[in-house]
Write a structure and sequence with these properties.
The structure is a homodimer of 390-residue chains. With 390 residues, chain A is of the alpha/beta class. Chain A contains 10 helices and 12 strands. Chains A, B: InterPro entries: GrpII_AminoAcid_Decarb, MfnA, PyrdxlP-dep_de-COase, PyrdxlP-dep_Trfase, PyrdxlP-dep_Trfase_major, PyrdxlP-dep_Trfase_small, Pyridoxal-P_BS.
Amino acid sequence: MIMDEKEVLEALKKYREMDLKYEDGRILGSMCTKPHPISRKISEMFFETNLGDPGLFKGTKKIEDEVIHMMGNFLNNDNPFGYIISGGTEANITAMRIIKNLSIKKERLPKVIVPETAHFSFEKAREMMDLEYIKPPLTNCYTMDVKYIKDYIEDNNKNDNKKIDGIVAIAGCTELGTIDNIKEISKIAEENKIYLHVDAAFGGFVIPFLEEKYKMDNYNYEFDFSLNAVSSITIDPHKMGLAPIPAGGIIFRDSSFKKYLDVEAPYLTDTHQATLIGTRTGIGVASAWGVMKLLGKEGYKNIVSKCMDNTHYLVKKAKEYGFEPVINPVLNIVALKDDNPSETCLKLRQIGWYVSICKCVGALRIILMPHVKKEHIDEFIGALASVKKN
Amino acid sequence: MIMDEKEVLEALKKYREMDLKYEDGRILGSMCTKPHPISRKISEMFFETNLGDPGLFKGTKKIEDEVIHMMGNFLNNDNPFGYIISGGTEANITAMRIIKNLSIKKERLPKVIVPETAHFSFEKAREMMDLEYIKPPLTNCYTMDVKYIKDYIEDNNKNDNKKIDGIVAIAGCTELGTIDNIKEISKIAEENKIYLHVDAAFGGFVIPFLEEKYKMDNYNYEFDFSLNAVSSITIDPHKMGLAPIPAGGIIFRDSSFKKYLDVEAPYLTDTHQATLIGTRTGIGVASAWGVMKLLGKEGYKNIVSKCMDNTHYLVKKAKEYGFEPVINPVLNIVALKDDNPSETCLKLRQIGWYVSICKCVGALRIILMPHVKKEHIDEFIGALASVKKN
């Protein structure tokens, strides 16, 4: 049945009202948040752009190059190469494409060291590319055991059939916000000439702006290109960067990695395409540029400090009610121990609170994104207490 | 350097002015176009949505389900399953994931019959998933040779090591707009129980709305779920569907295929995720819904008829100037024979005209999208004539 414009907009408004809104503070398990207000105006301006065919949208392409340089800059890389893409999943799959293509032994599966706590995008990559994952045991900090990695590589790297083709480390893991000891892992990777990819999809817009007072002694917060072996980093402006979706990011140390991704693109203004996805809007690219120029490092520092302050506030309140965090928060993610997290999560949902759960440990998972305020935390802890009492 | 809001918007405006605009009629080689005006209003409304976590955005998720049913409806499928995703590349990779996962022999590469004229997204899929492509010769209609396919399958399908795991056919190929003889291919696939995927990224919003008078005798325009073996179709609302990017589509015959795509998603409101990309905006989904409700089948029919009318107008004008089409246009795509298409393409670009080229035959490629008007065609043919004279 055909509708007129008014009917269409009214019908869609009704659907939209069924969605949760970030500003209501009930979304506590998402790594996305309300984009910065300026991004609405920017998105309107770049609504029709398509970076899948950059020769047609040369201005938007220039913005992308600048965004990559700006992000490279706060990742300690003066000569970065990369793309603003659909999100962390595409970025991580892209890094795995490189590792697969760099792997010399075609007769066996590419072998990659991947943390137990890795995001499920790595599972998609494994399934598609037939990668073999080696998952080191976790330390009591929920990070990869560095000694295990060192020993494993020493034991296997002389034998081409058993050699490790790549390592993935995480800076701000999805479940607990922990950061692998990337400084030490980088040393091992460098010594053994192994490709090292860092998934900082979440942490990339947090760690560079984190005040010293929030840093935990038992974690090493170094994760970027200042570490010699780091070849690529996933870092998403549409998470803590306050850009709208789609704005994921993949940054390489330099453009020498492009050749491992290029596919011939005969119909386009460019002859080759390195991104996994073809057609892609410039909305996220231009918004990321705008938000970064507007906020600057100081602006992000303020946002991160507020989120960290709320994180510690949540932990304090939770403890008052007898709930214990799994670890002291490393970033703005809190995991609260729970004997039946799936059930608690479901019960909370029934009364309108949306947290998520950890897989590696029995816990509820709460992300203190910029849309979460202290009053939401107060209400939430009350709701959690009532759910656990019944 | 930090900027204020005004400075940011002014700087971005300057970049945006370096882009081409669809309404200027100079973009003649793109399968994207100016989205329908209503999609700006809709995108504003759904700006913050994330279908990567559908439990948080239940209204937007309902819209997606409805869009899939609406699209299924004009593809002759009352019980469709699918997603609105980033574009044709993700859709085609998704279909290849299914074929890979359905392939029973894990000791050898999955074998897929793929047209010579297939979009380069299939090359990305091949590279990632180590697929083996069998490319049948092309007929003089630039479609796959059906007899070759039949013979190849008969010769090999008894032997598990040589068995074909999937067939890809195209309805509206990127280069020439041709349509494979999917009716006959479907019969072969059905007899031999082979998965058949149809790439109708472009043709999906053209062929169902094409008036009989535009159909060529030497092509079979049947391509959808009315053919028994068709299991999945790529169909992009952000091409001829007039939705904004990102709005690609993958539609399956039914939900039984979901299990071959599902990956465990412990942190989300859903326990599993079937799409390749995780986080995804609802902008394209809601816009596709809105544009489809507003235009209806009649509206799309009018748009397609105008584009086809312009297509034949271009061919007529081209012939007047001595340029010959490779084939009579099957859809709104024209390929003009050229002895050095790369050079001509470059020369045209230097004077502001953006066509692209064919790979399978020496020709310039022009797509008559809705933003291309008759006056643009007149100007373009004049420009082409002047370029070829010099």
